[in-house]
Design goal:
736 residues, alpha/beta, seven-stranded parallel β-sheet, 32 strands, globular, binds adenosine-5'-diphosphate, binds zinc ion
Length: 736
C-alpha cells in the first residue's frame, strides 16, 4: 500500500493542521474531507476532521501516529461547508479545527451518530377503526392522528398519552411504531394573510425579482411597518420553487408569536434552532434541515452554520442587533457570514431593520445593496409621538418628573399599559456611605457593586461577584450606608407606592430567568388590563404589547456620552426600539424621554426627523474621522493578572507591526494600516484581569488582513509573557 498521511484539523486554538497515519489497513480512498476521526494528541483524546490526504510529510516517521478511529464513511461536513469554514478561518484568523466545530451540533462533535437524533414515531396505517373506539383518551389520541399522520413519541407523552394507550391503538391496527426522524409538526390550518399595502407590495415586487441570484437587500422599515409580512410572502415564493429559507433573528426576538406566525402560515415543516434547546433537539433540528425535511429554519446566531441543501433565501431580521456578533472564541458576525453564505449559494439575503447599522446603511446608500424602505405603519396603527422632557432644575418624584407621572395616570385611567424603560437592573447602582463617601466596589473589577433587595445582596454585574450588604460603613464605622440612584427594583417599589391601584411588573434578568418565564409573563401582559411594566432592554425587543400606549425612557442620557464611537448609534437604536413598543395596535402611543440635555442636537435630530436622518449625520462624522464604515477595523485585546505583561504584549505587537509595515511598504509615506494604542480598556480591570487593546484601522481590507496574518503568526510564536491571553477581533462592534 503506498505511503500517505491524513491532514487533520483539531479543535485547538493552534492555527495549523496535523499529519496522522491512517487507521491500520485503510487505504487513501477511504479518506474524504469532512469525515470525523479520533486521534491521540499528546495525552489527550480528541475529535479531528479530515481535510485531505498527502503522500509526503515533514513530520519524522518516529513521531507519526496512526488515527485511532474513523467515524464516518461519507463526509459529515460537505465540501460547501468546508469551503465556508476556510473563509471563516481566513477572515477571522482563527483555527480551522475550532471553526469546523461550529458547523455541527454538540452531539456530533462528541462523536454521536446522526441516527441518535432519531426518536420513536407513531404513524397511522390509514385504516379506519372497525368499531367505535372506547374511552375519551383513545378517541382524543385517534383524533390527533386525523390532523397529522405521524407524531413523535415524546410529543404524545407530553400531551398526556401513555405508551399503553398507544399500544392499544397499534393492536387495533390503526397506528404503527417506526424508528425514524420526526419532522416538526405542520400547521393544521393555514393562517389568513393581510392584503399588502402599496409600500409592502412594492417591496415584495423588488425582492422577488432578485430570487435565484445573489443580492444583498436592506429592508429599512419602521417598527410595525409590516416587514415580517413581506418576509412571509417572499418565503412563500421560495417554498413554491422547492427551496428552503433561512430566517435569522436576535436571541431575544425569537418569541413564540414570531415562531407561530411562520408555522401557521405555511404547510411545511419549520425547524427551530436557539439556545433554549437541549443537545438532542439541536441535533434533530440540524438533521431535519440539512437533510432537507424541514423547509424553513428559524434560528439565532449560530443557526447560520446549518447546512441547507436547497437554500433559496436568507432573511436576517434586526440586522443591527449586537447579538449577531459572537463575543468570544470565534468572534464572527452572523450577519457578515450570512452575506458570504448567500453569495456562495447564489441566493438573495434580506437584512431587515427599523434602525439599520451604519455599516449596512452605508452599503445601501452607496448602491452596493438594494435599498427598500417602508415608512408607514401597516394596517391602521399610527406611529407614536416622541417628546423630550427636560428635567433640568425640575423637582423629581422618585426619579419621575411631575408631568410624566400625571400623564402615566391618564393612560392607566384609560385602562392602558405604561412601559417604563431603564437599562439598569437591581435596586441601586451604588452603595455609599453618607458620612465618609466610601463606596462598595468589586474586588476583582474597576466597578461598583450593585445593590439588590430581592434577595438582599451586593452584586458585580461584570464578574458576578456577590457579597452581603454591610450594616455599617467598613471605612468609618458609620451607619449611614445607603443605595444611591435607581435600578428596576427600586423603580418598581416606588411606582407601586405611587400607583397602588395597578400592578407593577418588573421585567429583567432577575425576574425572568428562563424563556418559559418570559413567555408566561408575556401572555399575562397580553391578556390586558392596565398595568405598569418596568424593564430593561429585555422589554425593548421583538415583543408586541398591543395595550402599551405610553413609554417612559428614564435614563436616555447614559448612552449619549459613551466612550465608544458607536455609542450614539446604539443609543438611538435602543430608543427607537423601546419607542416602537408603544401603540402597536389600534391605539396611538406616546413616548416621553426624560433628559438633562433637552437641547442635545443629535437627540433632537432623532426625535424631529427620525433615525434615518440621525444616521446620515452620524455617517458624516464617521467619514470625517475615517471610522467604520469608512475604514475597516481590527482590535487586538490582551488580558492578564499581570498588568505590565498585558500592556507589554501589545507594545511588542505594535513594534512588530510597525516594522512589518515598513518592510512591506518601504516607499509609501503613509502605511496602509494605522495603529492606535495600546490603551487600557475603559474598565481596565475585570474579574481580576487587566485589559488592554490595540486598534488597527485601514482603508482597504486586504492590507489589514495581511497584517493580521503576520501578527497572528508573531503572537503564536511569541515566547515569554506566559500569563497573557490575547485575541484578535475583526470588525469589532465595540472598543470598550
Ligand atoms: P414589522 O416586522 O415591520 O415590525 P409586522 O410585519 O410585524 O411589522 O407588522 C406589524 C403589525 O401589522 C402586525 O400585527 C401585522 O399583522 C400587521 N400588518 C402587517 N401588514 C399588514 C397589512 N398589509 N394590513 C394590515 N395589517 C398588517
Ligand atoms: Zn463611612
Ligand atoms: Zn466584578
Amino acid at each position: 500500500m503506498p505511503f500517505f498521511v491524513v491532514d487533520i484539523a483539531l479543535p485547538l486554538p493552534l492555527r495549523r493542521t496535523f499529519d496522522y497515519l491512517p487507521v491500520a489497513g485503510e487505504d487513501a480512498s477511504r479518506y474524504q474531507p469532512g469525515q470525523r476521526v479520533r486521534v491521540e494528541f499528546g495525552r489527550q483524546l480528541l475529535m479531528g476532521y479530515v481535510l485531505g490526504t498527502r503522500d509526503q510529510t515533514d513530520v519524522p516517521e518516529s513521531k507519526l501516529r496512526p488515527l485511532l478511529e474513523r467515524l464516518d464513511d461519507t463526509p459529515l461536513i460537505s465540501a460547501d461547508s468546508l469551503n465556508l469554514c476556510r473563509w471563516l478561518a481566513d477572515y477571522y484568523h482563527h483555527s480551522m479545527g475550532e471553526v469546523l466545530e461550529h458547523m455541527i451540533p454538540t452531539m456530533l462533535r462528541r462523536g454521536a451518530n446522526l441516527n441518535e437524533a432519531d426518536e420513536r414515531v407513531w404513524i397511522t396505517t390509514d385504516q379506519a377503526p372497525e368499531k367505535p373506539l372506547r374511552g375519551t383518551k383513545q378517541q382524543a389520541l385517534w383524533a390527533l392522528f386525523q390532523v397529522q399522520k405521524h407524531w413523535a413519541h415524546s410529543d404524545l407523552t407530553q400531551r398526556g398519552f401513555s405508551l399503553a394507550q398507544l399500544r392499544s391503538l397499534a393492536d387495533a391496527g390503526l397506528i404503527e411504531e417506526r424508528q425514524q426522524l420526526p419532522l416538526p409538526p405542520v400547521a393544521l390550518e393555514q393562517q389568513q394573510c393581510h392584503t399588502l399595502n402599496s409600500q409592502q407590495h412594492h417591496a415584495l415586487k423588488l425582492l422577488s425579482a432578485e430570487l435565484g441570484r445573489f443580492k444583498a437587500c436592506l429592508l429599512e422599515g419602521v417598527t410595525g411597518s409590516g416587514k415580517t409580512e413581506v418576509y412571509l410572502r417572499l418565503i412563500e415564493e421560495v417554498l413554491s420553487k422547492g427551496q428552503q429559507a433561512l430566517v435569522l433573528v436576535p436571541e431575544i426576538g425569537l418569541t413564540p408569536q414570531t415562531v407561530r406566525r411562520f408555522q401557521d402560515r405555511f404547510g411545511v415543516p419549520v425547524a427551530l434552532l436557539h439556545s433554549g434547546l437541549n443537545d438532542r433537539e439541536r441535533l434533530q433540528g440540524w438533521r431535519q434541515v440539512s437533510e432537507g425535511g424541514a423547509r424553513i429554519l428559524i434560528g439565532t446566531r449560530s443557526a447560520v452554520f446549518t447546512p441547507m441543501p436547497d437554500l433559496g433565501l436568507i432573511i436576517l431580521d434586526e440586522e443591527h442587533d449586537a447579538s449577531f456578533k459572537q463575543q468570544d472564541g470565534l468572534r464572527y458576525s452572523a450577519r457578515d457570514f450570512a452575506l458570504v453564505r448567500a453569495h456562495r449559494a447564489g441566493v438573495p439575503i434580506v437584512l431587515g431593520s427599523a434602525t439599520p447599522s451604519l455599516e449596512t446603511l452605508h452599503n445601501a446608500l452607496t448602491g452596493k445593496y438594494l435599498h427598500i424602505k417602508l415608512t408607514q405603519r401597516a394596517g391602521n396603527a399610527r406611529a407614536p409621538g416622541m417628546k423630550l422632557h427636560s428635567i433640568l432644575h425640575q423637582p423629581l418624584i422618585s426619579g419621575f418628573a411631575q408631568p410624566v407621572l400625571a400623564n402615566m395616570q391618564k393612560h392607566l385611567n384609560a385602562g392602558k399599559q405604561v412601559l417604563v424603560f431603564i437599562n439598569r437592573r437591581g435596586f441601586a447602582p451604588l452603595l455609599a456611605c453618607r458620612d465618609c463617601g466610601w463606596m462598595a466596589e468589586c474586588r476583582r473589577c474597576d466597578a461598583r457593586l450593585t445593590l439588590h433587595r430581592h434577595p438582599p445582596h451586593l452584586h458585580c454585574h461584570h464578574c458576578d461577584y456577590q457579597q452581603g450588604i454591610p450594616a455599617i460603613c467598613p471605612q468609618c464605622g458609620g451607619s449611614q450606608v445607603e443605595g444611591i440612584g435607581q435600578g428596576t427594583e427600586k423603580i418598581q417599589e416606588q411606582l407601586e407606592a405611587l400607583f397602588p391601584q395597578v400592578p407593577v411588573r418588573r421585567v429583567d434578568r432577575d425576574t425572568v430567568r428562563t424563556k418559559q418565564a418570559f413567555d408566561d409573563l408575556y401572555d399575562d401582559i397580553h391578556d390586558g388590563g392596565s398595568c405598569i411594566l418596568v424593564g430593561t432592554q429585555m422589554l425593548a425587543k421583538g415583543h408586541h404589547f398591543p395595550d402599551v400606549t405610553m413609554v417612559v425612557i428614564l435614563d436616555a442620557d447614559a448612552g449619549l456620552f459613551s466612550a465608544d464611537f458607536r455609542g450614539m448609534e446604539h443609543s438611538a437604536q435602543l430608543i427607537c426600539q423601546v419607542a416602537g413598543r408603544a401603540g402597536r395596535a389600534e391605539s396611538p402611543g406616546e413616548v416621553w424621554i426624560q433628559t438633562l440635555y433637552a437641547d442635545h442636537p443629535q437627540l433632537n435630530l432623532l426625535l424631529d426627523s427620525g433615525y434615518h436622518a440621525l444616521a446620515l449625520a452620524l455617517l458624516q462624522e464617521r467619514q470625517l474621522q475615517q471610522l467604520p464604515p469608512y475604514s475597516h477595523m481590527a482590535l487586538l485585546r490582551s488580558e492578564s493578572e499581570d498588568r505590565i505583561q498585558a500592556q507589554q504584549l501589545l507594545q511588542e505587537s505594535r513594534a512588530f507591526m510597525q516594522s512589518w509595515l515598513q518592510h512591506q511598504h518601504p516607499s509609501s509615506r503613509r502605511a496602509p494600516v494605522s495603529l492606535m494604542g495600546p490603551f487600557p480598556a475603559i474598565m481596565e480591570r475585570r474579574a481580576g484581569r487587566f485589559r488592554f487593546q490595540l486598534q488597527m484601522y485601514a482603508e482597504e481590507r486586504v492590507p489589514l488582513h495581511r497584517l493580521a496574518d503576520a501578527l497572528v503568526q508573531f503572537l503564536d510564536n511569541h515566547k515569554g509573557l506566559h500569563k497573557v491571553r490575547w485575541h484578535l477581533d475583526i470588525d469589532p462592534i465595540d472598543t470598550l
